[in-house]
Amino acid sequence: MTYVAEQSQKKDMAAGRQLEVKIVDCDVHPSSTIEGLVDYVPEPWRSRYFRRYPAEVESGGARIYMPSTATRVDALPAHGGPEGSDPALMDKQLIQELGVDYAILIPLFPRLKISDPAFETAMCATCNNWQADTWLSKFNWHGRYRGSIRVCPFDPEGAIREIEKWAGHPFMVQVSMFPESPAPYGQPQFHPILETAARHGLPIALHIIKQPGMRALTPVGFPSYWIETFAQHPLLYMGHLNSFVFDGAFQKFPELRVVCVEGGFSWLPPFLWRLDQYWNALGPEVPDVKRRPSEYIREHVRLTTQPLEEGFHLKSMQRMMTWMDAERLLLLATDYPHYDMDVPEWTAARLPQAMRNSILRDNAIELYRLPRTRARDSLDGSPLNG
Fold it and tell me: pTM of the full predicted structure?
């Protein structure tokens, strides 16, 4: 920032026209209506799941046994439609009530099935066009929202086409892929996608998107229930990080950044210890890996806070955060508008004091190149947060 711009910004802050950014939420889900599908679902599944959970029909499979279909009940628009589809309601609940300055949007549709990559790329393009026209334009009058470029990693040409199309958009800040994959993303077939994202300075966000069953393969087979799937999300991230390191992606693409969203973080310290231990002994198998695995991961990877893993003793979690260098690696996430979301104030109260500003805002500002201040707008004048 130039000296003149700095002075102008200070004057604006002194006059109350510019405000310091305090909270960046890195996991927010906008949505849209999905009318006309429920009646096509055969019984008994129509009555058992889809009549009760119509918001999940879009995927062709329900996120079963989740309270309120994973939705904050009060986030459902009064006039109908799924959670996250009403911009006025999201402005009120996310920005005014929770005090979020910037929100990183991660649309969860399409729920890719890895069956027809060309079709799925077309659905990703649909999502990107819709996101740019609504949440990053019509609904983004305040400039608080930033978007994610959805791509199908199993159609590399299509994925690259989408990244190239949106890389220059002022509010698209990352590439979004799902971690439930039949192949780890550090392998060479994905390198063209990784190279394109890295060249444009776009982090790749991996966000959980699948349900129990055939699409959620684990090292021991397929889970039957959501509770199993939810509990073992860290396994997905361990598999991909293993590959990013040992398939040489982090060495090959120094600018590549990866964000592990909604997969927890307490598993990271012992995972790093294990990687370093075996690299010391078995490193000659992967001569292109020049540095300790923990060094690559600390440099290239960020993780989000929600769902916060509290354990029985707060100090145990905080000790784990110290071991993993959470002050640099963690990003705040609410997971709004889902029922199990973490409110920023609640999360902040559980973070070590010395780490709070880094996790609540600084790490995200650096990763997504966000301004440290923003213009005051009418939402700031609300009795809720004025």
Answer: 0.87
